[in-house]
Amino acid sequence: MEFIGDANGVLSLLKTLQQTLSTDLPRIIELLNKDDVHGAHRVLHQLKGFTPVFCVDSLVERVVALEQLSKHGEPAEVRSAYGQLAPQLEQLRTEVAQHLALNPIA
Predict the structure, then answer these.
(1) Mapping DSSP to helix (H, G, I), strand (E, B) and coil, where does residue 100 land?
(2) Which class is 7-98 in CATH?
(3) Phi–psi pair at 29, nearest 5 degrees
(4) Which residues are CB-neighbours of 13 under 8 A, at least 6 positions away?
(5) How many angstroms separate the CA atoms of 71 and 45, rounded?
(6) For the segment 61-86, what is each residue's pLDDT rounded down to a tens digit?
């Protein structure tokens, strides 16, 4: 709540989000392509932690479901589920990057 009314604080959080997504989304694909579901789970767990702050409920629910699946799911099953979710996460990353480009931190 400390960022309420603090535009630069919110922009700083968005910059962190954009950096995280830019790093984590390719990392998840890399891990799943190696059938490293446990490694992907660790990254998805972190992703699950911040999505409620920045995302609509439907996207949060999908991230939570995928994170749960990655605890015990088979690599092909988790890879398929991530393949369905990845475009929405990439769209989020793109929208955040566009917003930051239009609203630089002062």
Answers:
(1) helix
(2) mainly alpha
(3) -60, -45
(4) 3, 53
(5) 10
(6) 999 999 999 999 999 999 999 999 99
